[in-house]
């Protein structure tokens, strides 16, 4: 009676665990027929929480914790966009799902190879926050002007008088004044923010 088949553990070109297979015993060689990309040494069993990587030099599996937060995705480094091995595919999927739910991080893609990297989004400066606030205020004033354009149209067409809409016209002028005051502030802050970003990239 021959030796029973045994389980071997397959790894990809980078050593990451791929799955399991069965190997046969070769009587003539007095050993199991283990392919080069397999080992009979068992990895850890918690494959939901860890990836396992095999070192062919030391014949040892090492456990690597799978990220559970966007911050932990940073430690994954650069992930190949085109690789179809289970480890890379799962790493990309985890990056995408975890970063999607965390506004403090983003995925940067390589310009040439489209590789994936998770990076922390820098905190906004006081100038950036002020610029956002003033842009929002300008947009709100412009929206209110647009919503009351019908008044100017009615007066221009002779369907109404300025006296009838005196209050609305006064408010429209206030919104125009607000926009005129905000525009130079927005222009100045935009230049300041752009200069700061340029300095960081030098």
Q: How would you summarize the topology of this molecule?
A:
Layout: E1 6-11, E2 17-23, E3 25-26, E4 31-32, E5 38-39, E6 50-55, E7 60-65, H1 70-73, H2 86-100, E8 105-109, E9 116-120, H3 126-147, H4 149-157, H5 166-201
Antiparallel strand pairs: 1-2, 1-5, 3-4, 6-7, 8-9
Strand order, biggest sheet?
A: 2-1-5
- Could you give the order of the helices and strands? EEEEEEEHHEEHHH
Report the β-strand fraction as a percent range: 15-25%
Count structural domains. 3
Describe this entry's structure for a reader.
This protein is an alpha+beta fold and 202 residues long. It has three domains: 58 residues, no CATH class; 51 residues, no CATH class; 69 residues. Helices cover 43% and strands 20% of the residues. The longest helix is centred in the last third of the chain and has 36 residues. The radius of gyration is 32 Å and the shape is rod-shaped. The termini are far apart. The model has no long low-confidence stretch (mean pLDDT 93).
Notable characteristics:
three-stranded antiparallel sheet; 202 residues; 43% helix; alpha+beta; 5 helices; two-stranded antiparallel sheet
TL;DR?
The chain is of the alpha+beta class and 202 residues long. The protein is 43% helix and 20% strand.
């Amino acid at each position: 009676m021959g030796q029973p088949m045994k389980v071997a553990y397959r790894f990809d070109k980078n050593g990451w665990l791929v799955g399991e297979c069965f190997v046969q015993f070769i009587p003539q060689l007095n050993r199991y027929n283990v392919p080069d990309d397999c080992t009979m040494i068992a990895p850890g069993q918690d494959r939901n929480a860890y990836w396992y990587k095999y070192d062919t030099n030391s014949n040892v599996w090492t456990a690597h914790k799978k990220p559970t937060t966007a911050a932990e995705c940073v430690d994954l480094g650069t992930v190949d966009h085109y690789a179809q091995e289970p480890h890379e595919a799962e790493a990309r999927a985890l990056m995408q799902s975890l970063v999607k739910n965390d506004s403090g991080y983003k995925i940067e893609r390589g310009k040439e190879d489209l590789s994936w990297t998770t990076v922390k989004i820098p905190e906004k400066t006081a100038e950036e926050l002020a610029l956002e606030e003033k842009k929002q205020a300008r947009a709100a004033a412009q929206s209110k002007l647009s919503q009351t354009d019908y008044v100017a149209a009615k007066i221009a067409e002779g369907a109404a008088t300025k006296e009838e809409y005196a209050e609305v016209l006064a408010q429209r002028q206030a919104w125009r004044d607000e926009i005129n005051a905000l525009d130079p502030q927005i222009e100045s802050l935009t230049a300041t923010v752009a200069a700061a970003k340029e300095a960081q990239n030098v």
